Amino acid sequence: MKIFSAAQLHKADEATTKKHNITQLELMEHAGTQIFNWLHQRMQGAQVPIHIFCGIGNNGGDGLVVGRKLMEAGYNVEMYVANFTDKRSKCFLINYDRVKSSTKKWPKLMMSAEDFPEINPEDILIDALFGIGLNRPPEGWVKKLIQYLNEQKSFKLSIDIPSGLYPDQALEDAEAVIKANHTLTFQSPKLAFFLPETGKFVPYYEVIDIGLDAEYLQKTESIAQLISKQEVQQFYKQREKFSHKGMYGHALIVAGSYGKIGASVLSARAALRSGAGLVTAFVPECGYEVLQASIPEVMVLTDTEDDLITDISYDFEPSVIGVGPGIGTKKETVTALKKLFSETKVPFVIDADALNCIAENESVMKVLPKNSILTPHPGELKRLIGDWTDDYDKLEKTKKFSEEKEVIVLIKGAHSIAVVGKQLYINNTGNPGMATGGSGDVLTGMITGLVAQGYDALLATLFGTYLHGRAGNMVAETKGFEALIASDIIEYIGDAYLDLFAQPEQEPQQQ
Ligand SMILES: NC(=O)C1=CN([C@@H]2O[C@H](COP(=O)(O)OP(=O)(O)OC[C@H]3O[C@@H](n4cnc5c(N)ncnc54)[C@H](O)[C@@H]3O)[C@@H](O)[C@H]2O)[C@H](O)CC1
Ligand SMILES: [K+]
């Protein structure tokens, strides 16, 4: 799904009204009606008090449409207008009058903190203060209003975006944002929903299709893409009946050091479970028995050194090399990596300590193979690209790094983001239970296993990240977040594949 900027959405709005000969007011009525329908379906007429807080722009206008519709349907509604300026939008004003004509009551005007209403914990709050037109942080009593609403225990539903957040630029005042329980967002999720500094204000959201012109949206290049099941279904390559293991590649996993052989076990097993035809693990001598005993399907090659990797040699042509988990950053290992990168012409998946070796040694950075897939967590990324001021600065610096080095960078996190030059692909699976040791080693193995099977670098990155998160979600469904460990993710890779094309369970037929 495409993620558009505020400017693009405003333009889409204009294009839609022109092309379909409808007014902005009709678009607002349609958007507000959909929010009303969403609430009505869930509330079924319940007389829970609903407080709607409207700004004076079009987001406020949406709030007024919702309020009017709810009142017409007999709900217990109170509407407030935070009158922070007199520059009310045209559609706001028309809907303001419509509220009066339909309900015989004006919304309550709020001019200062003295006008804040009393709210009970079981009441519902609807936030229609600011939408994507926010152009500066809320200040004075409006900021206090946001804080006052945040103090309430009531369920908070934000329209389009939690007020105080910019859809696609850095947050300036984290104390002036509505902490929404749920957000109903128009047409496209906003980039801010997926970044750590701003995403925490958007724990749940749903996209409401308000009918912006499909052709315009299709031809507009978005600022990012959200990768969900619908997208990855198209990536999947079905196995052929008359195929053999040679057709699914031979992955080499270079991983482990004394005390961290588990990293190589996790990566190698994950590569196998993802479908690689053959997997060889290259480990220090001390890892030999561990690997042979724990994964009989994996072939093992060892370094001459017992404790660490010092010279990576092998006697076959790997289709891909996954390198880094648990290898440490000792100088012998750095030398081995430099040699590997300069002498080998196969696709690479580079993770963990291999990234640290690159960041700490200019001479390794210089031989970083083009088209490699790098999978840093934020700490590793910082070592590679330097510090950033905010999430957007982080994305810009990563884009620059990706362009200069001609590599794919997967920034791991709650929503892992693949950066390929200027393009951003945001993963939509995973859960906080996956923030656990070894989870990254599994991902490295999975992406390596997909490249081995012939998926190109970008598809392998996106598909692997999706399946990893989906498998993690399936683990969490049975074990919860806390008990989830990295090995569990591997055990659910198969279920994650099956789930790609699973049919929803049928409701039992009534006799
Ligand atoms: N995308 C669409 O096609 C549709 C969007 N709808 C809704 O419209 C809003 C965007 O409306 P807009 O009028 O552009 O902006 P806001 O409602 O967010 O209002 C901004 C308003 O407030 C002023 N302002 C901005 N920041 C501050 C501040 N910190 N303090 C005080 N005042 C501020 C600004 O100058 C404006 O006057 C979108 O989110 C949707 O909810 C449609 O209704 C359907 C179509
Ligand atoms: K809002």
TrEMBL record:
SUPFAM superfamilies: Ribokinase-like, YjeF N-terminal domain-like. InterPro entries: Carbohydrate_kinase_pred_CS, CARKD, Nnr, Ribokinase-like, YjeF_N_dom, YjeF_N_dom_sf. Transmembrane segments: none annotated. Its EC number is 4.2.1.136, 5.1.99.6. Binds 1 potassium ion per subunit. Pfam families: Carb_kinase, YjeF_N. The keyword Cell cycle does not apply. AMP binds at K412, G413, A414, H415, S416, G440. Its cofactor is K(+); Mg(2+). Residues 228-500 form the YjeF C-terminal domain. K(+) binds at N59, D127, S163. Residues 9-218 form the YjeF N-terminal domain. The keyword Methyltransferase does not apply. Keywords: ATP-binding, Isomerase, Lyase, Metal-binding, Multifunctional enzyme, NAD, NADP, Nucleotide-binding, Potassium. It catalyses: (6R)-NADPHX = (6S)-NADPHX; (6S)-NADHX + ADP = AMP + phosphate + NADH + H(+); (6S)-NADPHX + ADP = AMP + phosphate + NADPH + H(+); (6R)-NADHX = (6S)-NADHX. (6S)-NADPHX binds at residues 58-62, 131-137, 160, 263, 326, 377, 441. Catalyzes the dehydration of the S-form of NAD(P)HX at the expense of ADP, which is converted to AMP. Together with NAD(P)HX epimerase, which catalyzes the epimerization of the S- and R-forms, the enzyme allows the repair of both epimers of NAD(P)HX, a damaged form of NAD(P)H that is a result of enzymatic or heat-dependent hydration. Belongs to the NnrE/AIBP family. In the C-terminal section; belongs to the NnrD/CARKD family. Homotetramer. This is Bifunctional NAD(P)H-hydrate repair enzyme. It comes from Jejudonia soesokkakensis. The lineage of its organism: Bacteria, Pseudomonadati, Bacteroidota, Flavobacteriia, Flavobacteriales.
